[in-house]
Design goal:
globular; alpha+beta; 12 strands; about 40% helix; four-stranded antiparallel β-sheet; 2 domains; Ribosomal Protein S5, domain 2; Alpha-Beta Plaits
Length: about 350
């Protein structure tokens, strides 16, 4: 009889950011403090680890269509732009045993749903579970941020790591010294109504967020008044959107989304383009109250709050522009890990 194969699996949810995105990016978050309101959805990044009896580390990434094989010989894996997220996690945990790893996500890279950071969280979850390293949610999110942003130098903020780890609707406060995640207890009726009004869609184009984020960071470093005021307003709108959500005022949330989009476009000139502007104006003319890009900008996913009796018109008219509507539900669970005998 063939011996059962031990598997360690993890999954972490992607997110949509309602308000405050961009204020979690240093140096703004460290100088003035950031506030973000986001929610996780039932689209995930997955990681499977199958321990081996030798020192060979086999990696298969479905999203990047890559198959790699390295040796766990005790030396640090060199960062060279090839699956560096995985290497950073393996180096941190000083993995000395062989394994097979399989990675895939429900959204393509560059989608604006926090994909790379969510992959990092799922990696940490699977490897820490495999090696029996106890970690709190704050430990996991902080490590994911440190490895991706500081160790590897990938530009971006902090919200994605904490959203993927904690899951659900959260108001997150980012300061130089610490991060505070406050889960929001929203009535089921309000969540159902919000979901009924929401339209999540894929613009058909991914983007590299790095250049967009660096442009925003430069504006803050240079003290550009428009950029800093827009970020201040985005932070204020995050709190106002949270209040509207707790009251169950869906129309007001839509209006605040529109205000957030207007402020977000002031972060940098790279946030939007003619294609995105066309999508947004078409949505508004068809019955959307407000909406925005979920992520740094430039492409990926957008979402809109619509008058419910006109939501289908918005979807139909956006389809004519090559936009794909994405079915989704909110996901209250954050990072999950488990073991299975195959």
């Amino acid at each position: 009889m063939t011996e059962a194969k031990s598997l360690i699996r993890s999954k972490a949810p992607l997110r949509i950011s309602f308000a405050g995105g961009g204020t979690d990016v240093p140096p703004y978050s460290e100088d003035r403090g950031g506030i973000v309101l986001s929610a996780t959805i039932d689209m995930h990044a997955y990681c499977t680890v199958a321990p081996r009896g030798d020192r060979e580390m086999r990696i298969r990434s479905l999203d990047f269509a890559k198959d790699e094989s390295w040796s766990a010989n005790g030396s640090m894996l060199r960062y060279d732009g090839n699956l560096d997220l995985i290497k950073a996690v393996l180096n941190h945990f000083e993995v000395k045993h062989g394994f097979d790893m399989f990675l895939h996500s429900d959204a393509p890279p560059g989608s604006g749903l926090g994909g790379s950071s969510t992959v990092m969280v799922s990696l940490i979850g699977a490897v820490s579970e495999w090696l029996s390293v106890p970690m709190s949610q704050y430990d996991i999110a902080r490590l994911a941020y440190v490895l991706e942003r500081e160790e590897l130098g990938f530009p971006g903020g902090k919200q994605d790591h904490y959203s993927a780890t904690f899951g659900g609707f959260n108001l997150m406060e980012f300061r130089k010294e610490d991060t505070i995640v406050t889960p929001l207890r929203i009535k089921p009726d309000v969540l159902n109504e919000l979901h009924y009004h929401l339209l999540l869609c894929y613009t058909g184009k991914t983007r590299d967020s790095g250049g967009i984020i660096e442009s925003q960071r430069s504006g803050v470093k240079e003290g550009q008044r428009q950029v800093i005021e827009a970020l201040d307003n985005a932070k204020r709108l995050a709190l106002e959107t949270k209040d509207a959500l707790m009251r169950g005022d869906i129309r007001r949330i839509g209006e605040l989304l529109h205000e957030s989009w207007e402020q977000k476009k002031k972060f940098t000139s790279h946030i939007t383009n003619a294609h995105i502007d066309s999508i947004y104006s078409t949505a508004r003319e068809s019955g959307a109250i407000g909406g925005k890009i979920s992520g740094a900008g430039g492409g990926g996913y957008m979402f809109f709050i619509c008058d419910y009796e006109r939501k289908h018109l918005v979807a139909n008219n956006l389809a004519k522009l090559g936009v794909t509507v994405q079915n989704f539900s909110f996901d209250k669970n954050g990072l999950q890990t488990w073991r299975y005998k195959a």
